[in-house]
Amino acid sequence: MKIDCRVCGGVVETAVDLGRQPMANGFLRPDQRDTEHFFDLAIGMCERCTTVQLMEEVPQEMRYHSAYRYQASGSVGHRRHFAAIARHFLDQELLGPDPLIVEIGCNDGVMLETIARAGVRHLGVEPSGNVAAVARSKGVRVREDFFDEATGRDIRRTDGPADVVFGANTICHIAHVHSLFAGIDELLSDRGVFVFEEPYLGTIIGRTAFDQIYDEHVFYFTVRAMHAIARQFGFEVVDAEHIAMHGGSIRYTLARPGRRPVAARVGELLAQERAAGLAERATLQRFDATISGLRVELVELLRSLRSAGRRVVGYGAPGKSTTVTNFCGIGPDLIPYIVDSTPEKQGHLLPGTHIPVLAPEAFSEDPPDHAVLFSWNHAAEITAKESAFAAAGGRWITYVPRVAVTSAGATAALAG
């Protein structure tokens, strides 16, 4: 399959194919089994600008709505991370007489609540009404909307220019990249910065973290691709920093050309990407073959444990779990239920495979023999919370970067 690149119009050809998949966060009530939307989950690389992207797009209105299930504040690690970035902005960027920060996709206000408590002007742009309401309850000012050129222009007219525009695991979700950057151009002040954190293609390939590929992640950025994107839309990459979020992300900082010095680590990351072949389609094709082998290993392990009479359940129901279970064909016969701390997911079925999602109490009240750790990016937090499970002889099953049955200490190391 071939498509036109959403960024530059070049040719994009399928390189990694994960089959027919449902929307990753489209959790179902038991009476909604026949209402799911499926699409072909595959990615390819633009032969011109090297941007990796989904071959088929699920409309944004189907992905983000008043019943959206993800809330970023559900993780202690997330709360600490976003409080720290908010303090950084307060200390380094929001220093003028009346500064303004705008967050694209503010979710439940996990970052902006720190800004709000500091009394600094802010605005969150969030299309999902339910999580927007949670943010408002924390004192965060929210515009319930998708961000595009018209949104950026309207915010500039009502609020003035923004010193910082921020996004976290959001910018890669926005397929209308031309309108997005036009909106940034309208909104950002002359010396302002556009800062965003996104899953990194280098991490996805290097750690075999194929579960980060799903409908919400339209783009899979590298520093090289972001250079091309920034240039096309009149910006410059002035910093690119490795961060630990989601097992290894990049925090990009873009500014208008010549307004900020370029950090040395931008060049260092570009050199690392060349060495790793991240701009080569063949690298994606090798990755496709690797994850096909991993699928076989994981399913064989689960089947052998079932044959041996071992009880296996899942721990954590992030969007990643939808990709893994559907790609591998893992259903309730192999994993009878998954526990998750998000109340909005409990009592629902995992998309596609229809594995029931239960509250974490089910895990502690009737401990299984093994647990597949789908929320591996929160491994340290989860294994500390469930230390009694390992102490009683329980084992964690991991599949990133390889299939393994492992101890709590080894599992916790995954999150770093």
UniProtKB/TrEMBL annotation:
GO annotation, biological process: methylation
Database matches in Pfam families: Methyltransf_13, Methyltransf_14, Methyltransf_23
The record, for InterPro entries, names: Methyltransf_Zn-bd_dom_put, Methyltransf_Zn-bd_dom_put_sf, MeTrfase_14, SAM-dependent_MTases_sf
Per UniProt, which keywords does this protein have? Answer: Methyltransferase, Transferase
| Molecular function GO terms recorded | methyltransferase activity
What sequence ranges are listed for the domain C-methyltransferase? 245-401
Listed Gene3D superfamilies: 6.10.250.3100, Methyltransferase, zinc-binding domain, NAD(P)-binding Rossmann-like Domain, Vaccinia Virus protein VP39
Domain (Methyltransferase putative zinc binding) spans 5-61
Coiled-coil annotated residue ranges, if any: none
Q: Which domain of life is it from?
A: Bacteria
Its name, as the record gives it, is Methyltransferase domain-containing protein
Annotated organism of origin: Geodermatophilus maliterrae
